[in-house]
Specification:
Order of helices and strands: EHEEHE
Number of domains: 1
Strand order of the largest sheet: 2-3-1-4
Number of helices: 2
Largest sheet: 4 strands, antiparallel
Radius of gyration: 12 Å
CATH topology: Alpha-Beta Plaits
Shape: globular
Strand content: 35-45%
Length: 80
Protein backbone atom coordinates (compact mmCIF):
# COMPACT_ATOMS: atom_id res chain seq x y z
CA UNK A 1 0.00 0.00 0.00
CA UNK A 2 1.37 3.40 -0.97
CA UNK A 3 1.40 6.30 1.47
CA UNK A 4 0.51 9.82 0.43
CA UNK A 5 1.71 13.04 2.01
CA UNK A 6 -1.09 15.62 2.23
CA UNK A 7 0.44 19.09 2.32
CA UNK A 8 -0.74 22.52 3.45
CA UNK A 9 1.35 25.50 2.27
CA UNK A 10 1.81 28.65 4.31
CA UNK A 11 3.57 31.77 3.07
CA UNK A 12 4.78 34.98 4.61
CA UNK A 13 6.99 35.99 7.52
CA UNK A 14 4.96 33.88 10.00
CA UNK A 15 4.70 30.82 7.74
CA UNK A 16 6.70 28.51 10.00
CA UNK A 17 4.72 29.38 13.13
CA UNK A 18 1.47 28.94 11.20
CA UNK A 19 2.57 25.53 9.87
CA UNK A 20 3.62 24.47 13.37
CA UNK A 21 0.21 25.48 14.71
CA UNK A 22 -1.58 23.71 11.85
CA UNK A 23 0.15 20.46 12.81
CA UNK A 24 -1.57 20.70 16.21
CA UNK A 25 -4.94 20.75 14.44
CA UNK A 26 -3.95 17.77 12.30
CA UNK A 27 -3.11 15.79 15.46
CA UNK A 28 -6.43 16.85 17.00
CA UNK A 29 -8.25 15.61 13.90
CA UNK A 30 -6.47 12.25 14.07
CA UNK A 31 -7.47 11.90 17.71
CA UNK A 32 -11.09 13.02 17.28
CA UNK A 33 -11.62 10.68 14.31
CA UNK A 34 -9.76 7.84 16.07
CA UNK A 35 -7.49 7.29 13.08
CA UNK A 36 -4.48 5.01 13.18
CA UNK A 37 -2.12 7.63 11.73
CA UNK A 38 1.06 8.88 13.32
CA UNK A 39 3.11 10.77 10.75
CA UNK A 40 2.56 14.52 10.84
CA UNK A 41 4.98 17.38 10.75
CA UNK A 42 5.94 20.83 9.61
CA UNK A 43 9.03 22.25 7.98
CA UNK A 44 10.39 25.44 6.52
CA UNK A 45 10.91 25.38 2.78
CA UNK A 46 12.57 28.82 2.90
CA UNK A 47 12.26 32.08 4.88
CA UNK A 48 8.71 32.80 3.68
CA UNK A 49 7.29 29.35 2.85
CA UNK A 50 6.55 26.50 5.26
CA UNK A 51 4.43 23.39 5.10
CA UNK A 52 2.44 21.22 7.46
CA UNK A 53 1.78 17.64 6.41
CA UNK A 54 -0.07 14.45 7.25
CA UNK A 55 0.83 11.04 5.82
CA UNK A 56 -2.06 8.69 5.04
CA UNK A 57 -2.41 5.32 3.30
CA UNK A 58 -3.71 5.76 -0.23
CA UNK A 59 -6.92 3.83 0.50
CA UNK A 60 -7.78 6.17 3.43
CA UNK A 61 -6.96 9.38 1.59
CA UNK A 62 -10.28 10.41 -0.09
CA UNK A 63 -12.39 11.09 3.04
CA UNK A 64 -9.45 12.73 4.84
CA UNK A 65 -8.68 14.90 1.80
CA UNK A 66 -12.33 15.92 1.52
CA UNK A 67 -12.56 16.79 5.23
CA UNK A 68 -9.26 18.65 5.58
CA UNK A 69 -8.77 20.13 2.08
CA UNK A 70 -4.98 20.02 1.72
CA UNK A 71 -3.40 22.32 -0.86
CA UNK A 72 -1.58 19.47 -2.56
CA UNK A 73 -0.27 15.95 -2.12
CA UNK A 74 2.58 13.75 -3.17
CA UNK A 75 3.81 10.20 -2.84
CA UNK A 76 5.43 9.73 0.58
CA UNK A 77 8.83 8.11 0.74
CA UNK A 78 10.30 7.52 4.16
CA UNK A 79 13.72 9.09 4.63
CA UNK A 80 16.17 7.51 7.02
Amino acid sequence: MRNLKLIWDFRGPDALKTAEHHEIHLKEYIQSEKLDLDITGFQAENDVHAIAYLVVPENQMPPIRDALKPHRGQLYTETL
